[in-house]
Amino acid sequence: MAETLYRDRWIECTSDALRIRGYYFPWGTKTVRYASVRAVRRLEIGALSGRARIWGTAHPRYWASLDPRRFSKKDALILDLGRFVRPFITPDDAAAVEAVLRERAPVPPG
C-alpha cells in the first residue's frame, strides 16, 4: 500500500505517484507516476497568469486542474510530462509538493 506523503483537497503525493483530483471532466483523477515527470517549474501566479482560472485552459499548452480556491493562492506548479499539454496545479502547500517531486522524480535540480 502506498504511503501518503502530502494531501490536500485536490492533490495527493504518495510514495509511488502524484494524484490530481478534478483533472478530467467532471471529477476524474489523473495519476502521474514520478518516473514520468521530466521537470517541475514553480511560479508565482497573478490575475493574468492563472489565478482566476478555476479549471481548464486559456492556453492550449497548459491544463489547470480543478481548484475553486486558486484565486486565493500565490504559487503554482507546472509539470513537464514530455507531452504537449502540461498540468498546471495549485496545491495548498506548493513547496511541500515541489519537494516531494524533486525527491521522487528524475527532475533536474532547481
Written description of the protein model:
The chain has 110 residues and is mostly beta strands. 10% of the residues lie in helices and 37% in strands. The chain has one helix and eight strands; from the N terminus they run ββββββββα. It has one helix at residues 94-104, and strands at residues 4-7, 11-14, 17-24, 28-33, 39-44, 62-64, 75-80, 86-89. The strands form two sheets. It has a four-stranded antiparallel sheet with strand order 1-2-3-4, covered by helices on one side. The protein has a four-stranded mixed sheet with strand order 5-7-8-6, covered by helices on one side. The mean pLDDT is 90.
Task: Please outline the helices and strands.
Blueprint: E1 4-7, E2 11-14, E3 17-24, E4 28-33, E5 39-44, E6 62-64, E7 75-80, E8 86-89, H1 94-104
Parallel strand pairs: 6-8
Antiparallel strand pairs: 1-2, 2-3, 3-4, 5-7, 7-8
Descriptive keywords:
110 residues
Task: Provide the succession of SSEs.
Answer: EEEEEEEEH
| Rg calc | 13 Å
Largest sheet: 4 strands, antiparallel
Number of strands: 8
Brief summary:
This protein has 1 helix and 8 strands. It is mainly beta and 110 residues long. The protein starts with a strand and ends in a 6-residue tail after the last helix.
